[in-house]
Write the structure tokens for this entry.
Amino acid sequence: MYSPWKFTKRIGNIGSPLPAPFLTLDASQIQFRHGATSMIAGTPGSFKSVLALNMLAEWAKAGIGCLYFSADSEEFTVVKRLGGILTGDPIDLVEKKILQGSPGKYVQALRDIKGTEFAYTQMDMNGIANYVKSYEAIYGAYPEAIFIDNLIDFVESPDDWGGMLIMTRELDALARSTKSHICILHHARLRMKADGKLPDYGRPPADYEIQGKITQIPRLVLTVTSKNLTMKLACVKNTNGPQFRDGSVSHEFQVLNSMAVKDLDFAMGRV
């Protein structure tokens, strides 16, 4: 049994928000909180992973320890993107410099983000938990932010919706026990226009278009779509703020050629 008035000794920073990775999100009460899970869902090519890496970069620069499980992209793709995000260099230049054997600028930029670690293999929940424990053994604290990219890569079958629901529930329990925030990347169907023939890139997926309909557990669910280098993001579930389940209210971002994400709403004075 727990006496509610003694909560401060038990919960620590659980429930407190991490710094806003984009000011637009903060203005819309979209917050990533300690001890909770979030989900970013979108179609392949919607820049989910790029958005997550930009969030990691912002948090890492603020001194927040991050652990990123990348089963969807190999190390070269990740360090190339992250190198461009951190330095502002075009992604083609980053790749060229690395392949030419002149990666020093990017090695230094990546070294400067302290407390950031990656894992590039598929694994089950026990494997994830072991990596989190190893992080704590090395740094003396659990990572404040953990990314799972993509959920479908951490279960036995891409059609195992029950397994994904169980994994999401276990990730939520891990978030509460470690007081970390866990951000889960997942797939959604492509929204179609009224004629049923052409894709509609103008509105992010609705909550019911997220594959497996496994949004019961995360406290925050964002969906993304993109056309060319313009990304739109909607908040379809938010237990601590406004939500628009049909994806009708969205925020606009631009993906630069460095893979950095620019907050267009804030830049244009919309918030």
About this structure: The radius of gyration is 18 Å.
